[in-house]
Design brief:
- Helices cover 28% and strands 17% of the residues.
- The chain is an alpha/beta fold.
- It folds into two domains: 2-100, Rossmann fold; 116-210, Response regulator (Rossmann fold), CATH 3.40.50.2300.
- The longest helix is centred in the middle third of the chain and has 13 residues, at 123-135.
- It starts with a strand and ends in a 6-residue tail after the last strand.
- The model has no long low-confidence stretch (mean pLDDT 89).
Length: 216
Amino acid sequence: MVLDDDPTIHEFWRRQFKDSILAVYTSPDQIGREYFENNTIGFLVDFDIRGAKMNGLDFIEKYKLVGRAFLVTQEFDYIQVQQRAQTLGCQVVPKPLLEDVIISQEQPQTRDRYDAIVLDDDDLILMTWKMAASDRNKSVLCFSNGSDLKSNLKNIDPDCAFYIDSNLSKNEKGEDIAKGLFELGYKNLYLATGYEPDQFSHVTWVKAIVGKDAVL
């Protein structure tokens, strides 16, 4: 299935998939739910869709199409597009190079699901989370610094809940790390702190300000 507002791109894909059934759409609103529910259907999605309320990566994330979708875009060299696509695990196809691109069907990429991702520089807090997870038969992944968390993002399902301490070591601020994750498409974010929530009224990119308890 192709989602793109450019008729020349439609024709290109029709030539490429001449022996296959190819559905072509110019707006996300035109696409029926049956496409999302059929795991055998692949998606070729433009990033900047004229007139749409969401971009291509929003579309792929909203309908959980990672592993089934390619982002086909002129904006392939934009840093924010590259970073978010990498975070989602979505492959990017540059439009200027379409003639040289061969798209093959592969098994969907799987990413690890956890009941909680915890970032805190206090070993006791991390131990508390791990013990709570063990007692309740839950899964938790713990990090003591932002660098280790970021280097492992590619393996973590974006739907996981992140609990991020505000005051970290090495002058790291949890709210800054949370903002970076939010800009990459992560939305299930919580700032975990012992301070009063009203001190973080400016932090609008997290779902809530919570305490330090292991909420599993």
